[in-house]
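## Example pair
The file below holds two records. Each record gives the amino-acid sequence first, followed by its structure token line.
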Amino acid sequence: MLNINPKMLPRLDEIETDLLARRARAEQEGWLGEIEGIDLTLTFLRQKREESKRLARIAPVSLGMPGLRSAESDR
């Protein structure tokens, strides 16, 4: 599963713009299979963008640093 770094969101916008241009060309040429593939890719891209934005809003949780237990606490 691919996780997108929120810093890469502008790149996803560029990819979406390119895909939309390719889709327009496919419509002009009547390439129905290509249109279907591009639509599927656009769906996945948009889902990843929304997931990445959602994860960026969630603050990381500090779990602390694990430590060694003392010999007395084992008894």
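Second record, same layout:
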Amino acid sequence: MCSKGGRILQLDLFREIIVDNFAGGGGASTGIEMATGISVDIAINHDPAAIAMHKTNHPDTEHYCESVWDVDPRKVVKGRKVGLCWLSPDCKHFSKAKGGKPVSKKIRGLAWVAINWAISVRPRVIMLENVEEFKTWGPLKLNNKGEWVPDPDKKGMTFQSFIKSFKALGYQVETRELKACDYGAPTTRKRLFLIARCDGKQITWPEATHGEPNELNVQLGIKKPYRTAGEVIDWSIPAPSIFTRKIPLKENSLLRISRGLKKYVIDTDEPYIVDDKAYFVQHYYTHQGSETRASSLDEPIATIPTANRFGLVAAFLAKHYGGNYKGSGIGIDEPLHTITMKDHHSLVQAFLIKYYGSDVGQSLNEPLHTITTRDRFGLVTIKGQEYKIVDIGMRMLQPHELFKAQGFPDSYIIDRDYKSNRYPKTAQVARCGNSVPPPFAEHLVRANLPEICVENTRYRTAVAN
């Protein structure tokens, strides 16, 4: 028996323990808890900020704020058997987002710590998560600038040696790429998973629980439809006009917005109209500032005065900081794309008013006026009724929206640590971008370790299905 945080805990020396290496802000640990009903026993990470967020949400876990190489598995395990060892080594020196930039041999070699754990304490099951390019792990060579870069002639050689090392220790090994949206997270994030086990049982890959709405199994009710970006957006947060910004948007941002407007608002037969439950469908701007008014989509649109009042809001997501990204963004009715350490998703809203035959439009500071019928760009048809785009709003997605898209429960604490110190927004986004979507870990653990899993946990009731 021991006391922790005012609670009495009983140490079960006969229960297999769970270890989360590279624990980060707690995505994998949260998913494991969703499956098992208990916190992971040990969490290891070198970053104090990551450990602080983990400790806030997993207070029963034993935390080690150290390099994974400085932690002796035998000492931290204390003679207990390890049922599961989870590892999410740094992926940025494998990711295609790295491009042709130099890489670090030390960071790329972090995954070898899994072999160290296999040799030292022989976990029954080892799970490792990384980007798909992890399979290309190979030797490095010096380029003409004296920088270390992957040797294209030896691509994948180190990865194969990594697999052989597990097998030499008596583990069977399998790898597979999975998408988070297939398991209930509203993001398309794709990751490579490696499972190694030494208990003689078969490695099992979980069946997808969600799919495209037009998929037969979804229509038959066998699977659920993909969760969408629209579910995670906080519609109560205003999207300020792009035309009244103190610092104008850059040309590339405007191009991305225009491409998205054309695809998701103007040319589509079914633009995403903000749900009336959000009560965010009408705005009235004044010179002194702005106030938000609202009316339900199933109510008559209020009289249009000589100022900007909008009847409907159509929306989509634009993508920024994407280098050479030339796409049109993301529809609100599809899963969010991969979340990175720097948020690159923005919500774009097209504010609409009814169009009665002579094209109606206006600037933010002018009365309504009539334009010739030849100017028809921005005309949107919704259920047979024509609307004109009269303003465009944009805002970046907020951390609580991104965490929800990643599959975290609403109850997960992201804005402060266990000592009530506040996290800046940039730190919150970074923790999210580095995290493992919890549904990944939950479904993998349920499929391979059903004997330690439970039906309901404190998190499961908080996560939307």
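Notes on the second record: Residues 251-266 form the longest helix (16 residues). Confidence is low (pLDDT under 50) at residues 1-10, 280-309, 358-376.
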